[in-house]
Amino acid sequence: MSKGRHVILDCTGAARELCLDDARLLTLLTRAAKRHRTNIINSCRYRFGHSSSPGCTAFLLVDESHISAHTYADDGKIAIDVFTCGDTDAEAIADDIVKALGKVSVKKTVLDRFTG
User: Fold this and answer.
1) What domain range is 95 assigned to?
2) What is the pLDDT of residue 1?
3) pLDDT tens for residues 67-86?
4) Which pLDDT does position 114 carry in this prediction?
5) Quick check: is 51 in a domain?
6) What is the CATH number of the domain that holds 92?
7) What is the tens place of the pLDDT at every residue in 19-49?
8) What is the DSSP track for 57-77?
9) What's the number of domains the chain is made of?
10) Which of 6, 11, 56, 70 is catalytic?
């Protein structure tokens, strides 16, 4: 039995516009979380590029742990983490996010946390 499930998504081929749209990414994460009855505690978003490569981050602090996205606009990459514990289905949340992203290639890694 584990204490949680952590889904890591490495998305490539994302549109530059999406990789720069922190508000849209936060909306995608929030919709997926709410669809699976995740308890959202707080959220934030930020657009990079002032002193770093262009991109953005969107983050949900949830009772079950966290859901986050971090982008690299010049490379068309989005790194997404969905970490939940209890009965909340991290893989279902991750799958909803991927569907909402549209045309991207995805490498999905699933980790059970604190097994044994």
Assistant:
1) 1-9+17-40+57-102
2) 63
3) 999 999 999 999 999 999 98
4) 82
5) no
6) 3.60.90.10
7) 999 999 999 999 999 999 999 999 999 999 7
8) EEEEEETTEEEEEEEEGGGTE
9) 1
10) 70
Sheet holding 55-62, edge to edge: 40-48, 55-62, 65-72, 77-84, 4-12, 105-113
At 101-110, the pLDDT tens digits run: 999 999 999 9
Closest CA to 26 of 67, 65, 63: 67
Q: Which of the residues 11, 52, 65, 68 is marked catalytic?
A: 65
If one compares 3 and 41, the residue with the highest pLDDT of the two is 41
Active-site hit among 51, 56, 85, 105: 85
Task: Confirm whether 113 is domain-assigned.
Answer: no
Q: Does 85 participate in catalysis according to the annotation?
A: yes
Catalytic status, residue 65: yes
CA atoms of 104 and 76, how far apart (whole Å):
9
CA–CA separation, 40 and 11 (whole Å): 24
Residue 87 lies in a domain: yes
Residue 68 lies in a domain: yes
Judged against a pLDDT cut of 90, whether residue 56 lies above it is answered with yes
